[in-house]
Amino acid sequence: MGTSIFLILVSCIITILPLATAQNCLNQFNFTANSTFLEARNVLFSSLAANVTDRGGFFTDTLPLDSNDTLYALGLCRGDLLNKTCFDCISAASKAVIDNCTNHKEAIALWDHCMVRYSNRFFFNVMDTRPAVFGYATSNISANYVDEFDGVLSPLVDELIVRAATGSSTLKFATGDHNYSMFDNRIYAAVQCVPTLSSGDCNNCLSGAFDDYTSCCLLRTYVNIWSPSCSFRFQLSPFLESTVGAAPPPPPSPVTLSLPPPPPTNATGKEGMYVDGDLLCIGKIE
């Protein structure tokens, strides 16, 4: 990471919610116009948005090259996004990387809704927490609710981290919300890991992102932290496009069934009961 880093940061500190964008171009090389690596990257990125959308918001590709190089590429959308939002974000982020990282063998675009990344080194299951983009509001939580806010956000995020880390190899994403005042002021939060991370690395990455929050932007009303391996976001208004990642509903309450009352006594015979399998039968014995 120490070699020639070119960073374009369009928006890092935000008060309303424009698209936060950052492209990091790493490991600069003097590509020729017809470089095999450059051509392969451009071709792969030209279809990356379609591949990510067609596969539910996550796609990786590995392309061996004649020059003994290998191109690794990844696209990831926030787990709740609708197809159009996902496609548009991956498409725009891919174009930004191609336009700005013209002679680099590694690059990553961390946007509000998605991430695209490529490299000549394998990174799919490697936890990387830097470079990172920190987006946050300039306004703070009302002083009247600081203790309540702190008391709700931390356990909410802990719960989401556990759910995300135990996700699948195609989706490690969890969302939730909780009120923090008697007036039902709510925190809405989402966490996500690159699905190819192990559960342990996902947990560590998200825990580190929460630590970053406590260092950079404690008690802000909106925070969005993207790193190459995970993301953490919360705000005080709904922002999700679907219910993907929400906790499953609680199971229904058990239903208590009562047996019907026995028939009235008949003087002409004796009443009795017999059990047939799981069915309790009440009948008349003559």
UniProtKB/TrEMBL annotation:
Residues 1-22 form the signal peptide. Coiled coil: none annotated. Pfam families: Stress-antifung (PF01657). Residues 19-123, 129-239 form the Gnk2-homologous domain. Residues 245-269 are annotated as: Disordered. InterPro entries: GNK2, GNK2_sf. The keyword Repeat applies. It comes from the Eukaryota. Keywords: Repeat, Signal. Residues 247-265 have a biased composition (Pro residues). This is Gnk2-homologous domain-containing protein. It comes from Actinidia rufa. The lineage of its organism: Eukaryota, Viridiplantae, Streptophyta, Embryophyta, Tracheophyta.
